[in-house]
Structures are given as structure tokens and as C-alpha cells.
């Protein structure tokens, strides 16, 4: 009997390889992250399963694999996978919806703190020799008593809410058309419209998937609703934002500050104006990355693939 083959677009944690090989699976890690390499290696290897993180899994890649049965996404968002094509080809997709939720929530809170203390400005001034920058700082804040606004109130958002409400004493408001006040309880005061959240919050953090109704749905209009000293946080997906309008609003003062972990194009181009525009904290799509989080992501998806192979039950199928 031929071995069950698994192709990695990236190896997050060696635990998966050890467990796959202990189940007599054959494993191959890609040699370079681009579609041309993927297609060439997939054609030669002919895997039964592909395991990915945020690398694109395209229709061309799927069509190259005559034996492909399952795709495992080490994370929650599925926008990097051509889901329509996967469904059309009857390819099962499994994922890890909760594996990195706390890591991302913590990162969102960290970006809020960095904005509240104007970290980027202070860091640059201090590195440039201005130790006394601390004496004439304006618009720095404690989080206590400030209002956190959440656009999207799912798992990650609620974890961040708890940290901010009970840890810092913040007021929490949010908008989510699929959430009810009864379900979320007193953790967050839900608003009737997203505009109310943008207008009332001192920090607005988005936690949405990229779907046709949300893609590039946030731009100058939303930023213009914000308080003049408010900050915008995005640890969800860069494609939610009209990035050129975000840059313009930071430059002209419509938006005071932003903390960004995700970008419309990744890796962020070296010539991106986000790299030099004032008032923005940048991290390289690293919110999910923590030792426990990526081990959890890997294990959850790996166990789902093994269960799929064995014909067992698994509860992380899309």
C-alpha cells in the first residue's frame, strides 16, 4: 500500500513531521515559496494532503495534484485557499480556528499600548539622542477609562475584550451583526451600527474575515468618523483596508495613529509609504506567532489530517 503523502508549504513545528512519520506518512517540505515551485514539486510528489499557513493554495496547485484529498490550514482565516475550487474538486479543508486566538488577542492589546504611549515616535526620538523627549510628550494615555471599540466580536475579539476590560479597566463597545447582547453578556456593549463604534472609541480594533462584503471596506470614510486622538488596530487581514486611504489619513492627520500587523500585500514592499509615515507601528504578520500558539496550530491541523486518513471524526472541517 502506498504511503499517505503530506506536502508542507511551511513547517511551523517539527512535532507534525514526527507524528506523521510515526504513522508511516511521507512528508515533503517545499524548497521555495512561490506558485511555480509549488506546482513543480506537487507534480513530482503527488501528495494526498497539503499543509499551509498563509501561503496561497491556488486552483492550479490543486489541479496539479491528482491524489489531493485534504488541505490543512494552520490558522483560522481561509482567504489564502481557493475554497470554491476545493469544494468543486471535493477536497476537504481542515483548519485551526482557535489555536492562535489568544496570541493574536495579546498582540492587538500590545499594539494598543504602543499607540497609547506613542512608541514609534518615542523610539525614534530616543535613538536619535533626544532623551528629554519624555519631558514634552503630548497625547500619551493610560488605557484605564478609555473606550475600546471592536468591529467584529468573535473569539479573538472577545479574548482581547476580557484583557482590556478586566485588566485595564476599559469600557468596551462593539459591532457585529451576527452577535447578540444576550450571547456576549456584559463583556461588551453592542451598538446598532458600526459608525457608532468608530465615533465613540479611543481605539478601534478590527477582527473580521475577508469576504466580498468586507474586502477593502474600511477607508477614509471610517477613519474620518474617529476621534482626532484615536488609534486604529488591525491584526486581522490587510485586505480589509483601503491601504492608500489609510496612508493618506495618517499623513493629513485624519487618523492619529495605527498599529498594523497585516497588510494588503505581504511581504510589505520595501517602498511602501507605511514604512515611513508618522504615527504607525508595524509588525510583520507575527501576531499569531508564539511558541505555544504555533505548536497548537500545528497539532490541531495535523491531528485532523491523521483522523481524515483513518476515517475518524474531526471537528475542524470547514
What keywords describe this structure?
7-stranded parallel β-sheet; 12 strands; 318 residues; 37% helix; alpha/beta; 5-stranded parallel β-sheet; 12 helices; elongated
What does this structure look like?
This protein has 318 residues and is α/β, with parallel strands linked by helices. The protein has helices spanning 14-22, 35-45, 59-64, 83-88, 101-116, 119-127, 155-168, 181-184, 194-200, 220-225, 243-252, 291-310, and strands at 5-8, 26-29, 49-52, 70-73, 92-95, 147-151, 171-175, 189-190, 203-206, 231-234, 257-260, 280-282. The strands form two sheets. The protein has a seven-stranded parallel beta sheet, with helices on both faces. It has a five-stranded parallel beta sheet with strand order 2-1-3-4-5. β4, α4 and β5 (92-95) form a beta-alpha-beta unit. α1 (14-22) runs parallel beside α12 (291-310) and α5 (101-116) packs across α7 (155-168). The model has no long low-confidence stretch (mean pLDDT 93).
Amino acid at each position: 500500500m502506498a504511503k499517505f503523502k503530506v506536502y508542507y508549504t511551511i513547517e511551523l513545528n517539527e512535532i507534525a513531521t514526527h507524528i506523521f512519520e510515526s504513522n508511516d506518512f511521507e512528508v515533503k517540505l517545499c524548497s521555495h515559496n512561490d506558485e511555480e515551485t509549488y506546482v513543480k514539486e506537487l507534480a513530482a510528489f503527488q501528495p494526498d494532503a497539503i499543509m499551509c499557513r498563509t501561503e496561497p493554495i491556488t486552483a492550479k496547485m490543486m489541479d496539479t495534484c491528482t491524489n489531493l484529498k485534504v488541505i490543512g490550514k494552520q490558522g483560522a482565516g481561509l482567504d489564502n485557499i481557493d475554497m470554491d475550487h476545493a469544494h468543486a474538486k471535493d477536497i476537504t479543508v481542515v483548519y485551526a480556528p482557535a489555536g492562535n486566538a489568544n496570541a493574536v488577542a495579546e498582540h492587538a492589546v500590545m499594539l494598543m499600548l504602543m499607540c497609547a504611549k506613542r512608541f514609534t515616535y518615542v523610539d525614534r526620538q530616543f535613538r536619535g539622542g533626544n532623551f528629554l523627549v519624555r519631558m514634552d510628550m503630548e497625547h500619551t494615555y493610560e488605557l484605564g477609562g478609555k473606550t475600546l471599540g471592536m468591529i467584529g466580536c468573535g473569539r479573538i475579539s472577545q479574548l482581547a475584550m476580557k484583557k482590556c476590560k478586566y485588566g485595564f479597566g476599559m469600557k468596551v463597545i462593539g459591532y457585529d451583526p451576527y452577535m447578540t447582547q444576550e450571547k456576549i453578556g456584559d463583556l461588551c456593549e453592542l451598538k446598532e451600527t458600526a459608525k457608532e463604534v468608530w465615533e465613540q472609541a479611543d481605539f478601534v480594533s478590527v477582527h473580521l474575515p475577508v469576504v466580498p462584503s468586507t474586502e477593502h471596506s474600511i477607508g477614509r470614510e471610517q477613519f474620518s468618523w474617529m476621534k482626532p486622538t484615536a488609534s486604529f488596530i488591525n491584526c486581522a487581514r490587510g485586505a480589509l483596508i483601503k491601504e492608500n486611504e489609510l496612508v493618506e489619513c495618517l499623513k493629513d492627520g485624519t487618523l492619529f495613529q495605527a498599529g498594523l500587523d497585516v497588510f494588503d500585500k505581504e511581504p510589505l514592499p520595501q517602498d511602501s509609504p507605511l514604512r515611513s509615515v508618522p504615527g504607525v507601528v508595524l509588525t510583520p504578520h507575527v501576531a499569531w506567532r508564539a511558541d505555544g500558539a504555533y505548536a497548537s496550530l500545528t497539532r490541531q491541523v495535523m491531528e485532523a489530517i491523521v483522523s481524515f486518513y483513518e476515517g475518524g471524526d474531526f471537528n475542524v472541517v470547514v
